[in-house]
Amino acid sequence: MSNTIGIQIGPDSFVDEGTEKVLDILQKQGAVNTLYLSTFTYDRGITGRQPANATLPGHGLSESPERFFHGGNFATPHAQFYKNTAIKGDQLKAPDFGKLDILQEVLPAAKKRGLKVVCSIQDGFVYPDDMPFVKDFAEVDLQGRKGGAMCFYQPNVREFWKAVAADLCSSYDIDGVLLFNERNGPLLNAIGVSHAQGIDSAKVTCFCAEHQRAAKEAGIDFERAKEGYRKLNEYVQNSLAAKRPSDGYYVEFARLLQTYPEIMAYNQLFDAGKTRVLKEVYQTAKGIRKNLEVGFHIEHTNSFNPLYRASRRYEELAEIADFLKVVVYNNCGGERYRNFILNISSTVFRDVPPAELMGINNHLLNYANEAPIDDLPKAGLSADYVMRETQRAKAGVNGKSRILPGIDINIPTGRNSRKASPEDTYAATMAAFKGGADGVILSRKYSEMYLANLEAAGKAVRDAAKA
Ligand SMILES: [Zn+2]
């Protein structure tokens, strides 16, 4: 199979710039052969115009108050696929572009050019309060409050994700689906594993009745798990308030895990639920057409966090995926990695100065010569980082799945943080191939990419093919 040169793109780009014109640019400048078309999403991360106050990247349009992004299913949902779930998927047609069915618009034009079309499906609801279906099957946090995400252990939710995939795979001649799901388990959330969020350890999920049932089946004492998370919450709150345990922050954390092994077990239960949803989507698609490609987006935390890394295996994911889109975003990676280090050094590793902690973490993660912590946002992560993470993923899947690193092209960063340049984009794309990648996915979305950077990625793709 030849290399996949993919790009993530939202329906707005085709609407705003013209389908043929956009496809011309992608093929000629970006050497693209596969569209990862944001088809079911409520998240502006992979679709949507540039914010009203942002500079346009030389193409596309800005948001305006009259054209604010809503999201949903940008194809045409068909009621017969949603019979096994109480979530009325046929009513989730995205209202943004009226009756337009983005697959009807893009598929014939793409096929004529020999381009593949893979539908991106994203589990993530930016405005859950406006969405009764999310609330009906929402996760429940430690204090009994409903959250903004749908629980993996709710049978209606599992059926819903299968239905979304089945509808797209049956109703259209697409080439596959790419699933986005960046949600984490309660242990990792409690201690602030992520680069992208603050720490709210009382808000960890999920303690709904279905989860309780799943815990029982898995032989986990639900009440003990809950008690463990309450203690963990106290520990985190004290840490954030700099109330140092007499034995130190790390020892107290280790003691909690030993006293309540249910904390770890319950976190694994969350991951198992998430993986099962991925597996069911994979099986659904394969049951419809064997040659459909199914892949998963592997989020940035997987790169930064040793504990997260330990919570899953590339090889196991490879068994339920034809390809993995591994996030190796290097420009925004600088500020994100710094945020991650600051998060963990406000709780478990509070006794270690952040700069030293980052040095140790670099060793654990096999990062080489990255900038010191305070320079990271401005410096970004290196092309070498892209290569190392690609190599790790390739070794991890052991030939069972293709590895398509996600290349950072103009992912938004803070005012003084690293911005993508053509040189960076070229170097990062080349580094992915040097690491053994089976292709790349230019990320996060075409509407935010400067064409000079897209062209640099295309040049790297062509140069790598010659080498
Ligand atoms: Zn639940």
Describe this structure in words.
By secondary structure, this protein is α/β, with parallel strands linked by helices. It has a single domain, classed as Glycosidases (TIM Barrel, Alpha-Beta Barrel), CATH 3.20.20. 45% of the residues lie in helices and 14% in strands. Strands 1-2-4-7-8-9-10-11 form an 8-stranded parallel barrel, surrounded by 7 helices. The protein has a two-stranded antiparallel sheet with strand order 5-6. Bound molecules: zinc ion (ZN). Zinc ion binds next to helix 7.
Entry keywords:
11 strands; TIM Barrel; single chain; alpha/beta; 45% helix; 19 helices; 467 residues; binds zinc ion; 8-stranded parallel β-barrel
Structural class: alpha/beta
Strand content: 5-15%
The coarse overall form would be globular
Could you name the CATH homologous superfamily? Glycosidases
- The helical percent reads 40-55%
The rounded Rg comes to 22 Å
Summarize model confidence as the mean pLDDT.
95
Task: Write down the domain tally.
Answer: 1
Sheet with most strands: strand arrangement: 1-2-4-7-8-9-10-11
Could you tell me the CATH topology label. TIM Barrel
Q: Could you describe the largest sheet, including whether it forms a barrel?
A: 8 strands, parallel, barrel
